[in-house]
Amino acid sequence: MRVIQLTGINALSVSELPDPQPIRGEVLVRIKAAALNHRDVWIKLGQYAGITYPARPGSDGAGVVESVGAGVDAQWVGREVVINPSFGWGDDERAQGEHFTILGLPRAGTLAELIAVPVSQLTEKPSHLSWAEAAALPLAGLTAYRAVFSRAQLRRGEKILISGIGSGVALFALQCAVAQGTEVFVTSSSDEKISRAISLGAKGGFNYTHPGWAKTAVHAGHHFDVIVDSAGGDGFEALVDLAAPGARIVFFGATRGNPPVLPMRKIFWRQISLLGTTMGSAADWKAMVDFVGAHWITPVVSDVFTFEQAVEAFALMEQGGQFGKIVLTP
């Protein structure tokens, strides 16, 4: 089978490897489409703990069950499935346990023609999704759903701000919030991405490269019940200023590092909750897939590449030029 693998830092190539064989409790899935996440870029750059080479990234994948291992019902063969990338969450819904891992490291990921995974990680592909759309769903959908609903408890009629629109997680959070019947605003460094978010149901947006953008928003009467962020850094204080009394700020990343200032007085006086989150539990996964089916949500696909175009696909992700998920097909 063909795989996309790393033999060292930035050493990305398409290689031939023997087909995997499913062990007890596993199935063999023929991948129809896989998708990239920023996690894959950090693995490529050697910026992720526990990397050993050769490494095969890829947390997102959808395909057809080709064979089953011992103890698995043969009726799975031929089913169209999506793979849950959250492994070993544990029994506590509040947080992942010590055995938690994400598909793609240390376990070989979805950037391959075939992958063996536990049958417990599979869900039937929502019928309204194409293969590329189904592959775009898992990590972004799970992360966004847990952030917006399980952690921030977004309710109908509330007002939400989603930062960094254009990424898969931010866009899925936007789609969830719109489906929930809330008033959604976004931030971006690109006016074009803000316009595209509005076409997906956002009420408006703010370009955070404009000086004083947050103060302008506050003066226009904007305060938010929920704020979703993955950047942190020196822009985090502006998000606190935009938080309404009793607001929840939920964050799943820190791409700009730690905030240089955490305005404690503003946070405690306005009773603001800071909520960390990552990925999601099996219950979050089921709820997310059910939500997608009930509301016919279609993940946004930015670009589709072949395996042979993997270098170009990763370059687009590193440049931040995508609007939605970058998909790779064997």
Essential attributes:
330 residues, alpha/beta, Quinone Oxidoreductase, Chain A, domain 1, Rossmann fold, 7-stranded mixed beta sheet, 6-stranded parallel beta sheet, 10 helices
Describe the 3D structure.
This protein is an alpha/beta fold and 330 residues long. The chain has two domains: 167 residues, Alpha-Beta Complex (Quinone Oxidoreductase, Chain A, domain 1); 135 residues, 3-Layer(aba) Sandwich (Rossmann fold). It contains ten helices and 17 strands. Strand 16, helix 10 and strand 17 form a beta-alpha-beta unit. The longest helix has 14 residues. The protein is globular and about 60 Å long. It starts with a strand and ends with a strand. The model has no long low-confidence stretch (mean pLDDT 96).
How is this structure best summarized?
With 330 residues, this protein is an alpha/beta fold. It has 10 helices and 17 strands.
Give the count of structural domains: 2
Briefly, what CATH class of the largest domain?
Answer: Alpha Beta
Tally of helical runs? 10
Strand residue percentage? 25-35%
Computed structural class: alpha/beta
Rg is 20 Å
Q: How do the SSEs run, as a string of H and E?
A: EEEHEEEEEEHHEHEHEHEHEHEHEHE
Biggest sheet statistics: 7 strands, mixed
- What do we call the CATH homologous superfamily of the largest domain? Medium-chain alcohol dehydrogenases, catalytic domain
List segments where confidence is low: pLDDT < 50 over at least 5 consecutive residues.
none
Oligomer: single chain
The dominant shape is globular
Q: Using DSSP, what is the number of strands?
A: 17
Average pLDDT rating: 96
